[in-house]
Write a structure and sequence with these properties.
two-stranded parallel ribbon; 214 residues; 24% strand; seven-stranded antiparallel sheet; alpha+beta; globular
Length: 214
């Protein structure tokens, strides 16, 4: 996926990182010092967005994945990916189970506030697109998908709405786990305009996504 200039992370994401930093670290486990560092950095970026004179978006080194592949059905691995360090059967199962378990609901209805990122819990979990993404990230790391392989991306749908999806970096490119689509698609085949994303392995570093070359 072609990566552009650094951008500020979404405010809802930064608020999540200050409240629950375990969701914003590119590691499968972290000690208290690492979590405190994430929380501090997120708060700094959040307040620099509220008061822009405080600072600019953090920049990071380049990150990249490689070219296109074919779409896959939920439950079957993508072709040409025999050496992955995780199970595509587990990935498909998690994607399917999270999509089926969570009922879609707006942040205003679910949490009584706007743009609140959280992992839905309880016997009847409800959430919006970012919440599906966070729930999938938790479930995928629990079945052995390395946290550094997972990134959040923000897109625009065909009907012009903002939407969040989870990207899984495979050996042949980024694949999209989406609550609007049961199949796991390569990012080039998802029907979206790509806006911004986390840098692979750097959750607090967000960048623009450049349009693919014609």
């Amino acid at each position: 996926m072609p990566i552009g200039s650094p951008v500020r992370p979404p405010p809802g994401f930064l608020e999540l990182c200050s409240r629950a930093p375990q969701h914003c670290i590119a590691a499968d486990a972290a000690d208290a010092n690492a979590l405190a560092e994430v929380r501090s950095h997120a708060l700094s970026q959040y307040w620099s967005a509220v008061f822009p004179s405080i600072g600019a978006p953090a920049s990071s080194g380049p990150g990249s994945v490689h070219g296109p592949a074919s779409p896959i059905d939920a439950g079957s691995p993508p072709p040409g990916a025999p050496g992955e360090a995780f199970s595509w059967d587990d990935v498909a199962r998690v994607n399917r189970e999270v999509n089926g378990r969570i009922k879609h609901g707006s942040d205003a209805r679910t949490y009584g506030r706007g743009d609140y990122w959280a992992v839905p819990t309880g016997p009847f979990p409800r959430g919006d697109c970012e919440d599906y993404v966070l729930a999938k990230r938790v479930a995928l790391t629990a079945v052995g998908v390395p946290a550094e392989r997972l990134s959040i991306a923000l897109v625009e749908t065909r009907w012009g709405e903002s939407h969040a999806v989870l990207l899984l970096a495979a050996d042949d490119g980024d694949y999209v786990l989406d609550n609007l689509e049961p199949r796991i698609l390569h990012w080039t085949q998802a029907p979206y305009v790509w806006r911004e994303r986390q840098l692979p392995g750097q959750p607090l570093a967000w960048v623009e996504v450049k349009p693919p070359r014609a």
